[in-house]
Design brief:
The chain is an alpha/beta fold and about 475 residues long. About 25% of the residues lie in helices and about 25% in strands.
């Protein structure tokens, strides 16, 4: 009941304010004024008009929506006043093209409306953004020239605009609801029909409302999930809770022209790595061989095969292995990809070791991809002494692309030193280090690329008789698997 009364009161206030603005607008020849403008009580005295500065914030949420946990769309309705230009219909299209920067941009709101004033049949109103236009002097020189050239008066009208929940942006809704001064979550990663977020503790009570708003404002999103802080380090898949929508976790995505399908709740997929996948695949030539140690569902393996490479792809996660095979068939490259379901170290010292002697003698380029940034650098020691026989001088040594996280001030130096220590050979001056992305404050994802040295492959240094496997699942922060 209080909410209804509040809405009626606010509406009456708005209408009264609009009537006052219209009256002042009429008395002052259509120009916005300050408090020192024409006096309504004494219409005989009309001083020189001064610019009227309109409030730049277009929408201010009603106070009763603060703390809402169950979405009530009607509570966000509001009537506001925006500036507008009265434009003859015959020049409307030309003017709109030149006024795109200052025209009102609002979801579901048309910026050109009917003019209901006297003689309005021949005119339309172009709604303007009050953050950009507060008076005729707000127009740029170019915009003023357009008005002059089209013979349009640079006078501003006031237009009463009704906004509903549908006309609001995600951030506006969430900022109105969440506790004042707290961080607002409006960004998310999208995987097919799934939007996934990392909510902070203060946002958790509003998880269902946040999920509903994300779905409403993003066509095609039918499921919104929140990652919990439990990560499976072995299989790299997050524990998730559904915040809104259907519980369908099988996603279909397209990346760099390649289609993938997978169960997002049981495999690892990061849409932010699209550019990195494309960068590495672009290094390949037709006929090259790719050995993908931690292949996941195939973001390196499948496009490499489509590019004409022969691929050996491995992943320890049975679900990733299943979807890897599925995606090879989906993209019709199953004849070019041999798949394995092994621990990364077992793959290096098994299938990779078996294939390597013949590959080294061939003319094709050989690339080893190790995309498990939380752990991959620790697997480089598996290459020590991998081959028993000596190598001729003209062999084609593999190129290794190994990923790692770094929280150090100099991430390049950090990953280079760790890679050198793990492989047992100094890589300074023999490699390139590429910044992939910033994962979190003071945490970078890096890729170190180098030619695998002969000295490492033929090393006589001691090797573990029972190689450790990829570690058992443990609790970590979500960011460690990005």
């Amino acid at each position: 009941m209080l909410r209804i009364v509040s809405r009626i009161f606010n509406s009456l206030q708005t209408r009264q304010r609009v009537r006052f603005f219209h009256l002042r607008h009429t008395l002052c020849s259509g120009v916005f004024h300050t408090e020192q403008t024409c006096s309504v009580s004494d219409p005989r005295h009309i001083p020189e008009p001064q610019p009227y500065v309109m409030e730049s914030r277009l929408y201010t949420a009603p106070p009763e929506v603060r703390g809402m946990t169950c979405l009530d769309k009607e509570a966000f309705a509001q009537t506001i006043v925006v500036p507008a230009l009265r434009v003859p219909k015959e020049v409307l299209n030309k003017l709109v093209k030149s006024f795109k920067k200052v025209a009102l941009q609002r979801p579901g709101v048309t910026r050109v409306v009917e003019d209901t004033g006297e003689g309005g049949g021949d005119y339309r109103l172009l709604l303007l953004d009050p953050a950009s236009v507060s008076s005729p002097s707000s127009f740029s020189d170019a915009e003023s020239e357009v008005l002059k050239g089209l013979n349009v008066a640079p006078e501003l009208q006031l237009y009463e605009l009704h906004l509903s929940y549908d006309n609001l942006k995600t951030e506006e809704v969430l900022r109105a609801v969440l506790p004042e001064g707290q961080d607002v979550t409006s960004g998310f990663s999208r995987v097919g029909h799934i939007a996934h977020l990392n909510l902070r503790d203060h946002q958790l009570p509003y998880r269902n409302l946040i999920g509903r708003v994300i779905m409403d404002k993003n066509p095609g999103v039918t499921c919104v999930v929140n990652k919990t802080n439990i990560i499976d380090s072995t299989y790299r898949n997050f524990k998730m809770e559904v915040m809104a929508g259907e519980e369908n976790m099988v996603a279909k995505v397209k990346e760099n022209g390649v289609t993938y399908e997978f169960d997002f709740s049981r495999v690892y997929w990061n849409p932010r790595l699209s550019t990195e996948h494309e960068r590495v695949v672009a290094l390949l030539k037709r006929g090259d061989v790719v050995l993908d140690v931690f292949a996941g569902v195939g973001p390196f393996a499948v496009p490499a095969a489509r590019r004409g490479s022969t691929v050996l792809a491995n992943d320890l996660n049975p679900e990733s292995y299943r979807w890897l095979k599925h995606n090879c068939k989906l993209n019709k490259v199953e004849s070019k990809v041999r798949t394995f379901n092994l621990d990364g170290r077992a793959f290096i010292q098994g299938p990779l070791k078996q294939e390597l002697p013949a590959l080294l003698k061939g003319a094709a380029g050989v690339h080893i991809v190790m995309n498990l940034p939380a752990l991959a650098l620790e697997f480089l020691d598996a290459f020590r002494g991998l081959l028993d026989q000596d190598l001729s001088c003209d062999v084609t040594l593999p190129q290794v692309h190994c990923y790692g996280f770094s929280k150090e001030d100099d991430p390049r130096k950090d990953v280079l030193e760790r890679a050198s220590a793990s492989i047992g050979f100094p890589l300074e001056g023999r490699c390139s280090v590429h910044l992939v992305r910033n994962v979190a404050p003071n945490k970078e994802m890096m890729c170190v690329s180098f030619t695998l040295p002969k000295e490492v492959l033929l090393s006589n240094k001691s090797r573990q008789t029972e190689p450790p496997e990829e570690p058992a699942p443990k609790r970590q922060k979500c960011e460690t698997a990005d």
